[in-house]
């Protein structure tokens, strides 16, 4: 990047080391899936163990020679590390291997760039890429003249490096301002939903857990679904009707992943605010994944980072069809909902999910007989709009007798409105 490089290609040598300095090893299968999702063709894998990475090339001299031999043997044009590399490490590796070198952050950014479809999504990805790129400019233009001071020693003005830095700063500032406008627009939409008393539910979870399949199932939407990492990038929102609860808004969000680059979290703040401001989070878990507990912890870590860890959350264990299990709702000793088991692909368990949503958002269903005067037609219309009226009858004075069933929170809001 910003210096002479051999032409890049798709054939890739993967480097995945186990480091004592890392808390937990990253799943090599997930790394390979990331490369495939980016359109790469893994031709060889270099593994191994180190206590800590070296400052110059991340790997030791022996491992570097092994990687170089694999590059030559397979005519690979790309080496991808399942780790974060410093700019100097990346440059030193490219110089020795004579091919393009990419780290985990760069790989995820490339996938996001391919998946972005909306204008907002493209802006967010570009912002993350520019922030990542700005750290890669150092020593990228060392062949050009530096600025000099003093009579007879002044250069032509800005060096190319300084020009690029300035242009990046200008572009980053411009994108940040545009995303801030998007954030304000989203905020206005959330305030409108609050005024209309429409709850928002956000689907969160590890990438490829089946969030978009579940979203399509319960909302009859047509969001792109594929068995690959980060198939969904742009957020989608749809209204849906929940029996005994009424209208809610469901948001399908970008999936999380282990060691999600901080720059992406920063760039996607406008989108992730939908998660932070939601009335309920549905944490979709791939029940058939042997690493599901690790993935649950990663999702919780990201939720904490974006300030959404305190939102009400229910776990949705998806892909039950792969386990040949029966849909069910798990509760704790006090009867509180812990998780619901379902299959988004077959639809089994989606009715239980609606029950869970009703209970979580309504908290307590209120059943009572209500006598309304003729001048309380607005309250009657509001009860019908909420789908709360079970039966209706009329008395001799023109009043109305209603048998209603609705969440207590909705009833309290209606009463507060009537008393204003």
Short description:
Helices cover 40% and strands 21% of the residues.
The averaged pLDDT comes out at 79
Overall, the morphology is: elongated
Helix content estimate: 40-55%
Number of strands: 14
Tally of DSSP helical segments: 13
3D structure, described in words:
The chain has 13 helices and 14 strands. It has 420 residues and is an alpha/beta fold. A hairpin with a 5-residue loop joins strand 13 and strand 14. Residues 1-9 and 139-154 have low confidence and may be disordered. It has helices at 28-37, 61-74, 87-97, 104-115, 119-134, 160-195, 211-219, 262-267, 269-276, 292-305, 350-362, 377-385, 408-419, and strands spanning 11-19, 41-50, 78-81, 100-102, 200-205, 236-242, 246-252, 280-286, 313-318, 328-331, 337-341, 365-372, 389-394, 400-407.
């Amino acid at each position: 990047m910003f210096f002479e490089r051999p032409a890049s290609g798709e054939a890739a040598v993967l480097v995945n080391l186990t480091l004592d300095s890392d808390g937990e090893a990253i799943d090599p299968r997930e790394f390979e899936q990331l490369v495939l999702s980016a359109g790469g063709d893994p031709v060889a894998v270099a593994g191994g163990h180190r206590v800590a990475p070296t400052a110059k090339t991340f790997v030791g001299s022996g491992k570097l020679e092994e990687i170089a031999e694999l590059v030559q043997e397979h005519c690979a044009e790309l080496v991808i590390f399942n780790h974060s590399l410093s700019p100097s490490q990346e440059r030193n590796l490219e110089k020795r291997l004579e091919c393009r070198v990419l780290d985990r952050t760069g790989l995820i950014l490339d996938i996001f760039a391919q998946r972005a479809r909306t204008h907002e999504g493209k802006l967010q990805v570009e912002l993350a890429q520019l922030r990542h790129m700005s750290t890669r400019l150092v020593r990228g233009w060392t062949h050009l003249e530096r600025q000099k001071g003093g009579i007879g020693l002044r250069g032509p003005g800005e060096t190319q490096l300084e020009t690029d830095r300035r242009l990046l700063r200008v572009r980053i500032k411009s994108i940040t301002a545009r995303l801030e406008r998007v954030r304000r627009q989203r905020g206005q939409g959330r305030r409108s939903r609050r005024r209309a008393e429409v709850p928002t539910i956000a689907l969160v979870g590890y990438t490829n857990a089946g969030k978009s399949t579940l979203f399509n199932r319960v909302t009859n939407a047509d969001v792109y679904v594929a068995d690959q990492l980060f198939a969904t990038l742009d957020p989608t929102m749809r209204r849906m009707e929940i029996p005994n609860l009424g209208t809610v808004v469901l948001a399908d969000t970008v999936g999380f992943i282990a060691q999600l680059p901080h720059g992406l979290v920063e760039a996607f703040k406008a989108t992730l605010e939908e998660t932070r401001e939601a009335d309920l989070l549905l944490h979709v878990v791939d029940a058939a994944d042997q690493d599901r507990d690790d993935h649950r912890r990663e999702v919780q870590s990201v939720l904490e980072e974006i300030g959404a860890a305190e939102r009400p959350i229910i776990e949705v264990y998806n892909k039950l069809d792969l386990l040949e299990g029966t849909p069910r709702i798990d509760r704790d000793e006090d009867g509180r909902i812990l998780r619901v088991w379902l299959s988004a692909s077959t639809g089994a368990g989606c009715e239980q999910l609606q029950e869970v949503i009703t209970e979580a958002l309504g908290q307590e269903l209120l059943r009572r007989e209500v006598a309304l005067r003729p001048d309380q037609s607005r309250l009657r219309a509001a009860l019908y709009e909420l789908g709360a009226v079970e039966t209706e009858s009329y008395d001799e004075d023109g009043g109305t007798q209603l048998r209603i069933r609705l969440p207590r929170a909705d009833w309290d809001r209606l009463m507060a409105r009537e008393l204003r």
